[in-house]
Amino acid sequence: MTVTKTIRRREFLGLSLGATGAVLLSQCSRGASPSSAPSSALAQAAVYSSEGGLLSFDLVAEEQRVKLGSRNANLLTYNGQVPGPHLEANPGDTVQIHFTNRLSQPTNLHYHGLHIPPTGSGDNVFLEIPPGESHTYEFQIPQNHPAGTFWYHPHYHGLVAEQLFGGLAGLFVVRSELDEIPEIQAAQEAFLVLKDFALDRSGNIPNPGHMAQMTGRIGDLLTVNGQFNPSLEIPQGGLLRLRLLNASTSRFFQLSLEEHPFYLIATDGGAIAAPVELNDLVLAPGERVEVLVKADRDPGQYRLLNQPFNPAQGMMGGGMMGGGMMGGSQNRSTTETVATLAYNGSTEPLPLPDQLIAIDSLPEPQTTRQFTLNHGMGMVFLINGKAFDHDRIDTQVSLNTVEDWEIINTGTMAHPFHVHINKFQVLSRNGQPEPYAAWKDVVSVSPGESVRLRIPFRDYAGKTVYHCHVLDHEDRGMMGVLDIQQV
Fold first, then answer.
1. Domains, the chain, with CATH or none
2. pTM for the model
């Protein structure tokens, strides 16, 4: 087996940043807290890319003592690092991941957002890899697969929240036509894996307790690529492509960049038709976005902020784990600094693209279904009144058909709804049409909301799942089995 390691210039911002020769510098002041001053240059993992149409890679899940910012932490890691290795492939490539489980629990891998087979050695979430055993995942990225920011994480039912909260997550990027647009190529690129943690005084993750397992576990340590408030730099006049992943188990983010709008260019399933200007971004667990930032302000430092946000109008709280102590809620009253952007040098102003990738319109659906999300008695979460049963088929669809799914939240907590293998388009929310077309694989549904999706079932038959991506809710029943049948 071979491992090809390629460090791409625009993906490793610790190296030079274009013609200006600007470098990322640590701006940490002695005694500064993570929220008060940039701690270090933004870390970007080395990229393991396919070569000659093959990405062959060894991946090991194990507990390791690692640095989380400046703190020693006993976390769950892929190849000894948090986040895990950054993998890249192209449409048509073959992927071989030789996976070894050195955890004390069974686990497996889910390739979140990839359109690949749900069976065998593909994105098979029903697979169990016991402690000490190995498995080789092998699949081909379709020739027509869109470019996008995807990721991998565990998906062994009952342990998903615990293992992801412990640190098991990594990027999986597909490069394609979006990356070839000249204005996109000219932009500097940075990947931000947003992830919260909780540690006790010994550096261990504390037991979340029953309340956090109901509301979703949330940590008080907010990290970007395993760092606290890292810094990144761009020359004045430059263009920055930020690719953001919410790899948290339960935390929602509401992000804004001081004095700078975001120009949205891609969501979970790839590019949108044209840039959309936004003042802030809300990311539910599992969601990804790509945005452009124009460095057209006065030289200075600008904070990327996580603003106080409650996804369920004050009903989802009490799950905060602070230094191992329970208390607080997701609806925090303080704004947190996620990272700091600084201008360094200057360059000729770079333009935004006018057009990106057209979004195909889907035909009218053959079938319309309803899915009601709620919680039951005790520690149980339900879809259509039922908790997950590995042996039960909840929804049976035919390959090469299109369906509308209406997702209705009658409970008191927000539920980000995720479908494996096949992406969808969000048509409306509470009967109001979405402002722009986009391909998605996670959509957040707040209490009292009804969201209508249109989803095509293409290419692959077999069993997979749909579920809430507040992963404590998924582990406690809010998941259904989807059987895609060849007709």
1. 32-180 (2.60.40.420), 367-485 (2.60.40.420)
2. 0.90
